[in-house]
Amino acid sequence: SADFSTETERTLAIIKPDGVTGNHTNSVKETIINHGFRIKEESFIQLDEDRVKSFYAEHSSRSFFPSLVEYMTSGPVLIMVLEKGNAVADWRALIGPTDPLKAKVTHPHSVRAICGLNLQKNCVHGSDSPQSARREISFFFKMTSSGHASKHDEL
Ligand code: RTP
Ligand code: MG
């Protein structure tokens, strides 16, 4: 029966360039569906430097930032809006720790343990809070009054 105790929520997921190139797109989407998420929007895009710098602005002073920008622009990504109850926390739990090498030990069934290569090339992104999710979804998609989203690029 339906769980009415948890409010429906949306989060932003990204299959990063290493995930796309490594042919993990279909298996990750299957995992998403099997865990009860609905994929409300999806778009296969190539990010440019400015877009990545803006998306990851919170990390702009970190030493790994230039390398992160290079990585995230190295090939196409699949951005998705996922929906279910508790979507933000549940997607973060499903992807596992940031470092896939640690994930392999502590969360061996997580997406990053299975698909990630190293601390940087970790296959997927997930919004870290409901506030981040709202910011990140509107960063990529423009929501209409009917609740549908369209890519900013298409407007
Ligand atoms: P994300 O934002 O991509 O979902 O990842 P996260 O919350 O688990 O990790 P975060 O701290 O936000 O880092 C963002 C992304 O930067 C790369 N990274 N490289 N020391 C490093 O070389 C390093 N640390 C982080 C990863 O791609 C990480 O997902
Ligand atoms: Mg993060």
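^ ribavirin triphosphate complex. The longest helix spans residues 130-140. The mean pLDDT is 93.
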